[in-house]
Design a protein that fits this description.
Helix 6 (177-198) crosses helix 13 (317-344). The protein has 14 helices and ten strands. It has helices at 2-23, 56-67, 93-103, 120-130, 150-155, 177-198, 214-221, 224-228, 233-241, 265-276, 284-309, 311-314, 317-344, 354-373, and strands at 46-52, 80-87, 107-112, 135-138, 144-145, 164-166, 169-171, 210-213, 247-249, 257-259. The strands form two sheets. It has a seven-stranded mixed beta sheet, sandwiched between helices. It is an alpha/beta fold. It has a domain at 33-176 and 201-263: Alpha-Beta Complex (Spore Coat Polysaccharide Biosynthesis Protein SpsA, Chain A). It is elongated and about 75 Å long.
Length: 381
């Protein structure tokens, strides 16, 4: 009875993994049609919104990179502004911003003094209201753009009829297994949400690199769900207002942002608990799809390893060969999808870690499942 149960659970799980690849991950091999690049004279203005809470050092390092974007009129006049919201900082952020504002006339600084306990979104909202342009781009204070074309690349779909744009926010590579897993998990997440967007099932973005129209932001900010959580501005924006027609994912290397990854397991776990807490608020069908993917992944590895360990007692020679062959094909397909994604985001060194991290993601889901399904993290920083 038990051997038969494990065998058939494995068969169902591996077929579900095949299905997920065919319906979603297959899109990573298709060429994303580039948005029509507007001539310089036809460009519209963009407001970049940055919320900063005790980010003095990061602002000093990264704001000049944001301010130096190549996005201007035909005569070279910058066609963007940067709105920095100082959210109750006490580390010298005000002094840094004052000095930078003197250097960059297209930078607007707002001191957000209300709702100190209510997280990032009230501060972000004040920045959106103060922005003078209707197309908004969001980046975190601790992030730097990939280069001077970042702004033009991440915002371009907004000028081609989209209302929400999900970009990639990567992490710097440093030695150690924790950093490698964080970067792989970020790769995996990007593959998931970008392929879902291409399949017409948008469900999330990353707040450190996304764009939207002001109207869609204000529409979302007026909902009860948005105001019930102090975080999740990125995921909730897509979950509430994202549709197959109004959401785009950008995969061009020039559109990426980068930041430093957490250096301790404790700090990273706390960060992931907050990020994963919004998953329970995705649309019901999306929750089912992502849940099915995660559960089938876990069952696949648990049943495969168990059957392999007890193959002499439980399985015939033919069945042993069958499960090994099915697993080999599944791994080949997934490693090709992850490898293609690694190539897109310039993380080819992670390819060597795929077998280890594939199994590690099962453990990851078991550890964080309480925050995925039940608990919330209530703080921003």
């Amino acid at each position: 009875m038990l051997p038969s149960l494990f065998y058939w659970v494995f068969m169902i799980a591996v077929l579900e993994q095949y299905a997920h690849f065919c319906f979603f991950f297959i899109h990573v091999f298709t060429r994303v049609k580039d948005a029509v690049h507007l001539p310089v004279g036809d460009r519209d203005g963009i407001s970049v919104i940055i919320c900063a809470k005790n980010e003095a050092d990061n602002l000093a390092a990264n704001l000049p990179l944001v301010m130096s974007q190549h996005y201007a009129t035909a005569t070279g006049v910058p066609l963007f502004e940067v709105v920095v919201v100082n959210d109750h900082s006490n580390d010298g952020t005000e002094k840094i911003l004052s000095a930078l504002a003197e250097k960059y006339p297209d930078m607007l600084v707002i001191d957000h003094s209300a709702d100190a306990a209510n997280g990032k979104k009230p501060a972000q909202y004040s920045g959106v209201l103060a922005a003078k342009f209707d197309q908004l781009v969001f980046i975190d204070a601790d992030c730097r753009p990939a280069g001077p074309e970042w702004l033009a690349r991440i915002a371009q779909p907004l000028f081609n009829g989209k209302a929400i744009v999900a970009g990639y926010g990567g992490y710097d590579s440093t030695p150690g297994p924790l950093n490698a897993f964080i970067r792989w998990e970020t790769l995996h997440t990007f593959l998931l949400y970008s392929s879902y967007i291409q399949s017409g099932q948008p469900y999330m973005a990353v707040g450190r690199n996304m764009a939207c129209s002001r109207s869609i932001y204000l529409q979302t900010a007026a909902t009860e769900l948005w105001n019930s959580l102090p975080y999740g501005d990125d995921d909730l924006l897509v979950a509430i207002a994202g549709t197959p027609d109004n959401t785009a994912a950008v995969r061009h290397a020039a559109s990426f942002t980068y930041t430093r990854a957490k250096t301790t397991l404790k700090a990273w776990v706390a960060q992931k608990q907050r990020h994963l807490s919004t998953g329970k608020y995705y649309k019901r069908f999306t929750r089912y799809l992502i849940g099915e993917y995660a559960v089938s992944h876990a069952l696949l590895w648990v049943t495969f390893l168990t059957l392999l360990c007890f193959r002499h007692q439980w399985l015939s020679h033919n069945r042993t060969h069958l499960i090994v062959e099915l697993m080999a094909v599944r791994c080949a397909l997934y490693y090709m999808a992850w490898g293609r994604t690694a190539s897109i985001i310039n993380e080819r060194k992670l390819i060597f870690f795929f077998p280890c991290f594939d199994l590690g993601w099962m453990i990851y889901n078991f550890v964080f499942s309480p925050f995925i399904f039940f608990k919330n993290k209530t703080n921003w920083k």
